[in-house]
Amino acid sequence: MILRRVPDRGLHQALRNYFLQRALLENELFNRVDHLWTSHEELLDEVELLRSNEKALRQQHAEGSSFDISQVAKLRQELNEKNAKVVTIDGYENVPENDENALKKAVAIQPVSVAIEAGGRGFQLYQSDGVIPVTNMGYSYLR
């Protein structure tokens, strides 16, 4: 092996690392090319399938067969069922500050939305688990 004849161990190690790195890069490049080739073949198969489907549709159209309208209606109904509204929100109420009972009532009715002021440095730099002390919140909470 050529590397065994190199007298300088540092140079020997550098050359060895260089060749290993090149081998790894070559292997990665080969894998990417292989993946691209496989993807290319899959795309060609899809194009062929689309062309054959197009030919079949043209042939059906030429023979005078039409698309079944009931299928369209069924697909529309399925789509409408998937997009149907489950819940509507028709109003809102504000919960008074520091009123735990009012918050409990609001949670019982549901849904509840909460807004927090996250602009203060105490909130942004908080790193511990648990509840953030009120003194670390933004200015409006200290009124």
From TrEMBL:
Question: Which Pfam families does the protein's record reference?
Answer: Peptidase_C1
An example Gene Ontology molecular-function term: cysteine-type peptidase activity
Peptidase C1A papain C-terminal domain location is: 77-132
GO terms in the biological process aspect are: proteolysis
Q: InterPro entries from the xrefs? A: Papain-like_cys_pep_sf (IPR038765), Peptidase_C1A_C (IPR000668)
Name the chain's protein.
Peptidase C1A papain C-terminal domain-containing protein
Specify the species: Asparagus officinalis
